[in-house]
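sorry for the late reply, my laptop died twice this morning and i had to redo everyting from scratch. anyway the thing you sent over, i finally got around to it. pasting the sequence first so we're on the same page, its 143 residues, then the predicted structure underneath. double check i copied it right bc i was rushing
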Amino acid sequence: MDFLPVYEFQKCVSRYRGDHKVQNFSCRDQFLSMAFVELRTYESPSDQDHRRKVEMFNSGEYDVFEKAGFSQVFYGDVLVGSRLPCLTYMLGFTDLTDRTAKWNAFRETPEWKKLSGSPRYAFESIVSNITNLILSPTTYSQI
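ok and here's the structure:
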């Protein structure tokens, strides 16, 4: 956080009561986790395959992200577009090293190995294309 001294950030948080009702994830934690975001889109060849990918997230993949320490910002089904059906989600990172460490932790969890090894969720059949963007918020971004 070289561009914004911690003292100045905390002054702002205090002034606007940014940590009011915070339980675990402080304003500073939120800010740091959003220094970089990764926007991922999983396209599926059919609605049935898409539903299985969403089922996979609900059957433990979300928990693996949590266990690996990801800041999970957003998950959504794309409603309109040229590449349907697809699932899009956003993860936050402090920097690219943090991203690499979390993805490595994700891949090594026993839960992911079990889930991804399940014939029901054979990756090749439920995801036909992945789009992956790494973004850094602009100075005028609300994030």
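The helical segments are 6-15, 27-33, 47-67, 96-108, 110-117, 123-126.
thats about all i looked at so far, will dig more tmrw
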